[in-house]
Specification:
heterodimer, A: about 325 residues, alpha/beta, Rossmann fold, 3 domains, 12 helices, globular, B: about 140 residues, 5 helices
Chain lengths: ~325, ~140
């Protein structure tokens, strides 16, 4: 297998070769020159519409353990599962410690479970593009559902879980009171609220608070004890219910459209950034108001794009 | 997405050894150096480590072992990587390893073996070199 040849690499992804899937995601994540050719090819393929589930919540709520249990549930149904597990990069060194896999090692040697850890790499934009491409590559490699797991802090992470068809908010007692949950703004975007560690002290009080929230917003609430696998079947059934409801009401289609738009915007910004940087550098040191300079920069970019397309149309005539 | 990283590294502990302070120390040092570190935790089989290394497309695998089973387990990880079409990923070992075992391990393909007391900058330098070499081949 030649991993350097985009067509061959993509064919190997389709053939579910683990090495090829891993490499293809790396290329896309690094924005490598080869990624463009690969994605061009992938875009021409008819991708199956797979179900994507976003799992978020505060650190220590049990997201990874819950993900492992959901993997087990779907494997029991004979489905091939993909997981994109996102952890933050250090803003100082740019490095990251990606530890979500520890909780998922039960499935490490199951060839039907594809797990990929991804660091946020400090990008405001770009994470949606990377994660979105990883999800599409996994879908192309036969995974359905694909789970996107991320800690629920920061705009980039929230944007990522919003890519998903369904979003789960995992909470656990002892991580702060209900006021913290209301502050975070996560409750609004969750389709299913999960109170995990449901046998720990304080779980019932949290569940009652969340029941109120769930009622107000017409959301589902499930109680789980992920370490022991309790409540997982009920949660999975809840996910099916929420998905069916969203599909019927047309919300699913709207969300997939929105998610596509978000990804397009992210890709456009990613593609524009290097051009803007080089235009900015070409123009020497920045003087005056940064906002005004930014507007001038954007105008220059538009002009250069117009010149480019004029050039192309002249060539073609 | 254009952020160029130092590379991706897997840190794992094969076998029945639960002493993970060394592995965690190296994982943190690599993170602070700018690596993306996939930490797979304790008590892994060589097969699990190789499968994770492939899925994560890492540039280097770092193994930590204090149980004395390094002569069996380090080569076993190398074998599993080869089986998974990933024999090109360099493997670096560390732990309580007698000096007389090191040449044998290197002969079998372990790139470098570190014992207690090695300055962390020496370890990082070897990880950098191994990762750069691997990334060039990509």
């Amino acid at each position: 297998m030649n991993l350097h040849q985009p067509a061959e690499l993509l064919a190997a992804v389709r053939a579910r070769n683990p090495r090829a899937i891993g490499r293809a995601i790396s290329l896309v994540e690094d924005g490598a020159p080869a990624a463009e050719a690969l994605l061009d090819l992938l875009d021409r393929e008819a991708l199956p519409a797979v179900v994507t589930v976003g799992i978020t919540g505060p650190g220590g709520a049990g997201k990874s353990t819950l993900t492992q249990q959901l993997i087990g549930h779907y494997r029991g149904l004979g489905r091939r599962v993909g997981v994109v597990a996102i952890d933050p990069s250090s803003p100082i060194s740019g490095g990251a410690l990606l530890g979500d896999r520890i909780r998922m090692m039960r499935h490490a040697t199951d060839g039907e479970v594809v797990v990929r850890s991804m660091a946020t790499r400090g990008r405001i934009g770009g994470l949606c593009a990377s994660a979105g491409a990883a999800v599409r590559l996994m879908a192309y490699a036969g995974c359905d559902p694909v789970i996107i797991e991320t800690v629920g802090v920061g705009q980039a992470e929230i944007d990522v879980v919003r890519l998903a068809d369904l979003t789960l908010l995992v909470m656990a007692p002892g991580l702060g009171d209900d006021i913290q949950a209301m502050k975070a703004g996560l409750v609004e975007l969750a389709d299913v609220l999960v109170v995990n560690k449901c046998d720990n002290p304080g779980a019932e009080a949290l569940a009652m608070d969340m029941e109120q929230v769930a009622r107000e917003r017409d959301r589902l609430l499930r109680r789980t004890c992920a370490t022991e696998g309790r409540g997982i079947a009920e949660l999975a059934e809840g996910l099916e219910t929420a998905l069916a409801k969203s599909s019927e009401s047309g919300e699913l289609a709207r969300r997939r459209q929105r998610s596509r738009e978000a990804e397009v915007l992210d890709w456009a910004l990613e593609m524009m950034r290097p051009r803007l940087s080089s235009l900015l550098r070409d123009n020497g040191p920045v003087r005056g108001d940064p906002r005004l300079a930014a507007r001038n920069l954007l105008e220059r970019l538009c002009r250069s794009a117009a010149d480019l397309s004029n050039g192309i149309s002249k060539e073609s005539t | 997405m254009s952020t160029q990283q130092c590379g991706r590294v897997l840190i794992g502990k094969p076998g029945l050894d639960g002493h993970d302070r060394g592995a965690k120390f190296i994982a943190r040092a690599l993170r602070d150096e700018g690596f993306e570190v996939i930490y797979t935790g304790i008590r892994r089989t060589p097969e699990e480590i190789a499968a994770a290394a492939v899925q994560e497309d890492v540039d280097v695998v770092g193994l930590s072992l204090l149980s004395g089973a390094h002569n069996e387990l380090f080569p076993a990880v190398l074998d599993e990587l080869k089986k998974a079409e990933a024999g090109d990923i360099p493997v670096i070992g560390g732990g309580v390893i007698p000096a007389e075992d090191i040449p044998g391990l290197k002969e079998k393909g372990v790139r470098e073996v570190f014992t207690p007391g090695t300055p962390v900058k020496d370890i990082l330098a070897v990880f950098h070199a191994a990762a750069n070499e691997h990334r060039k081949k990509r």
